[in-house]
Amino acid sequence: MATAKIQIVVNYSRLGDIEYCEDCVFRKVFPDFVCRLFGRLHRDVNGLRRSVSCREMSGGSLDRFRISGFVGEYRWLSNFWKASVEYEGMVFPTVENTYQAAKVLDREQRHVFKNVKPVEAKRLGSKIRLRDDWEGIKLGIMRHLVRQKFFRHNDLRRLLLGTGDSYIVEENDWGDRYWGAVNGEGENNLGQIIMGVREELRAGKA
Fold it and tell me: Does residue 130 sit in the same domain as residue 51?
C-alpha cells in the first residue's frame, strides 16, 4: 500500500501537476504523507521549508521551491544584511538604513541613519515625519536600493542567481503584508522586487 502511494506522488511530480505551497511542494496531493512515512516531517532548511524526502523521490526533478522568510542560509536576502548602497550622494551600510533615511528630505536628518544598526534605523524611521511624496515613491526607492545591493556586491549577486527559480517570499510574523506575507497572505512586494532583480542579473543588464 505504501509503495503504491509513493509511486503516485512521483508520477504527479513528473507531470508537473503540483500546486506549490509554503510548507511542502506535495502538500496539496498527500498532506504530510510522504514526510511522515519517512519520519522526516517538514525540515526547515535555513528558512526554506520543504520536504526533503519529496524532492529525493522525485529524482531531483523539482527545481522551483519557495524560499519563505529571510533567515538562516537566506538571511542575506534581508534588507538588514550588511551591503552598502548609495542614495542621493550618501552611502549607507544596508538597504534598511538607506530606505529609512530616504523617508526625509533633510540631509542632516539622513545622517542619523548612517551609523546605527538596521533595527534601530527601522525604529527611528517609524517615528519621523514622512516626506509628502513618500507613499508614491517608496516602492521605486526600494527597487532602486535592492537592485544596487545585488549589482554592486558580487558575492550577493552569485547567491541570488544560485536560488534558481525559487519563489521568494518575505514571510514574517510582524504583520507586514505589504513588503512580505503573513501566513501566506500579502503583496510580497520585497520578494517580487528581489525576483525581478534576479531576472535582470540573468539577462546581464547593467
Answer: no
Same domain? 92 vs 51: no
The answer to whether 29 and 49 have CB atoms below 8 angstroms apart is no
Largest CA-CA distance found in the chain, in angstroms, rounded: 70
Give me the number of domains the chain comprises: 2
Q: Which of 151, 130, 159 has its CA nearest to residue 67?
A: 159
Indicate whether 7 pLDDT > 60: no
User: Could you tell me the residue range of the domain that residue 175 belongs to?
Assistant: 75-203
- 168: nearest Cα among 16, 47, 28: 47
What average pLDDT score do residues 146-172 get? 97
Closest CA to 114 of 99, 126, 134: 99
**11 lies in the same domain as 100:** no
pLDDT at 15: 30
How far is 75 from 147, CA to CA, in rounded Å?
17
Q: Are residues 50 and 23 in the same domain?
A: yes
Instruction: Supply the pTM of this predicted model.
Output: 0.70
pLDDT at 206: 62
What is the pLDDT at residue 64? 60
Are 124 and 53 within one domain? Answer: no
Q: What phi-psi label fits residue 169: left (phi over 0), alpha (psi between -120 and 50 degrees) or beta?
A: beta
Residues in Cβ contact with 152 at an 8 Å cutoff, skipping those fewer than 6 apart: 83, 84, 85
